């Protein structure tokens, strides 16, 4: 009987663990908005490829749905206006010169001397001076997934800014922890393209952070093809591989099936001349289950209602008195708790409900299996 009781207890624990795991997954994945911070930390003409690294990722996340209002772009130098640029006002990441990365649709938030370690940390932690415009702020919250991309020159445990100061791995770790304490992210994806990039993540300790660097500690990160008109390399190999993968993603329903694991597996060390360094132990989810659009795309939640939206108070009330209370809530300045009183079925709550029902069903199956296992010896003994 003792052994039987232990088996029953095991089945119950397995079922309950499955239920708790689904609830934990639902809690982690419940985010309502995505933000991106894209940083080129290098100046001087010979670092042309670093601005194209940053602009390439900037355009990629915009294409996948993150608006400019939720992207902070930091460019340390004015390559389009450099006197040595044979394509004035333009920046290209391939020698066909087909797409100008510095067109009218680019919104640079920090440029030139404004790109410093201090300003980068201020953006992430929200410690801005009074009067800083909203366009230069990262207004993320505890339901935000944040993507951070950095490119430049680095070494073991540091990334150089402007060739005059350094962001250390310890600075980065403390900054991410301050973001967590302040409720400025739900999950965070950190990508860096620099020599020994993986060393920047070695001191991170904040939860729900995943990182990838272009090279492991002790390895260099290399440039890709050279343009003979510009006279320089146009892009780095790691960024080129990332861009190639993201451009292959079609913006449709299949996009959400592409996972971080697929992105990480797409890098070929033979092409990169280095080994990408991935850190996943701080995550509460498996990268095989995380769609890449959880960080690099838009977040769309549909609010379903069976009532038409009242264009004006007089029209709504005259046509249907039942709109009176709805109109008052929509037009009031009260808290969000009042807005929640509107009879609207939230899609995300609906999804969580079905996840919980699925977990309960899994626990039920485990219990039934345990009972069936117990009844089998009894029937055999009766024979």
Compose a concise summary of this entry.
This protein is of the alpha/beta class and 383 residues long.
Molecular structure report:
This protein is of the alpha/beta class and 383 residues long. It folds into two domains: 33-296, 3-Layer(aba) Sandwich (Rossmann fold); 306-339, no CATH class. It contains twelve helices and 14 strands. The protein has helices at residues 2-29, 48-63, 117-125, 169-181, 237-247, 260-265, 269-272, 293-296, 313-319, 323-331, 336-339, 347-382; strands at residues 33-40, 71-75, 110-111, 144-151, 154-155, 158-161, 165-168, 187-193, 209-213, 226-227, 232-233, 277-279, 303-304, 345-346. The strands form four sheets. It has a seven-stranded mixed β-sheet with strand order 3-2-1-4-8-9-12. A three-stranded antiparallel β-sheet has the order 5-6-7. A hairpin with a 2-residue loop joins β5 and β6 (158-161). The longest helix is centred in the C-terminal third of the chain and has 36 residues, at 347-382. It is globular. Mean pLDDT is 82; it is low at 2-8, 18-28, 313-318, 333-346 and 378-383. One of its GO terms (cellular component) is GPI-anchor transamidase complex.
